[in-house]
Amino acid sequence: MDSVYSDIDSNSCDFFPHTDDEDSRGSPRCASPEPEEPQPQQKKRRRGRGQAVVHVVKKNRRVKANDRERNRMHNLNDALDTLREVLPAFPDETKLTKIETLRFAHNYIWALSETIRIADLQAGKPGDAPLLLGSARLGDAASPGSDACSWSSSGSSSSSSSSSSSSSSPSYCASSPGSPVGGTEDFGYRPQDALFGFRSFVPGVY
DNA sequence: TAGGCCATCTGGTCCT
DNA sequence: AGGACCAGATGGCCTA
């Protein structure tokens, strides 16, 4: 725990200048996580030769570990970006945050599965008109012009609002799993709700 | 200015 | 032993 690295904390980018393939998106932060003030060699500790060697070995190990960790996080962010691309998004919507992406993806998947389930139920009934909740409808959901809330509270919602009786109806979804925000469970949750206004609808619900 | 989000560093733990 | 994964800490940037 000794401040072994206290004097090495110079960012590892010095050693691995963007070893990552696409650090381009990488923040310039990497270049200088800390204001590179000319460290005036403060409190240099004398070390024996052996200690110095151990120190260098540790330092190299740490630098390599940092680099791996950086790449790992970049991979994670790439996966998150890929997920964002798959999710419906409004053109003018700013980039979803990480947590928003995960929660929205969760709701989106749930909405899709609910839609399929309801469509199957409807299809099972003879004489019923085909339900417009298929993927095409979901595609509409992502269209910028669609008024999410109004659509979800009227129109075809009447035929699907019964989803509240679903065994998989995610009350946890409405309150966004893991979200400490409460008091949002009582607004009826429908598959469509998961797709619309994930940001402007109800804070903490997406 | 406070709060949210993010990237990075770091040390610990687990796994191969 | 070394790598992967994780969570805490830290500091920068941005926005209300």
UniProtKB/TrEMBL annotation:
Residues 147-179 have a biased composition (Low complexity). Residues 1-52, 147-186 are annotated as: Disordered. InterPro entries: bHLH_dom (IPR011598), bHLH_transcription_factors (IPR050359), HLH_DNA-bd_sf (IPR036638). One of its GO terms (biological process) is neuromast development. One of its GO terms (molecular function) is E-box binding. It holds the Pfam family HLH. Keywords: Developmental protein, Differentiation, DNA-binding, Neurogenesis, Nucleus, Transcription, Transcription regulation. Residues 60-112 form the BHLH domain. GO terms for cellular component: nucleus. Efficient DNA binding requires dimerization with another bHLH protein. This is Neurogenin 1. It comes from Cyclopterus lumpus (Lumpsucker). The gene is neurog1.
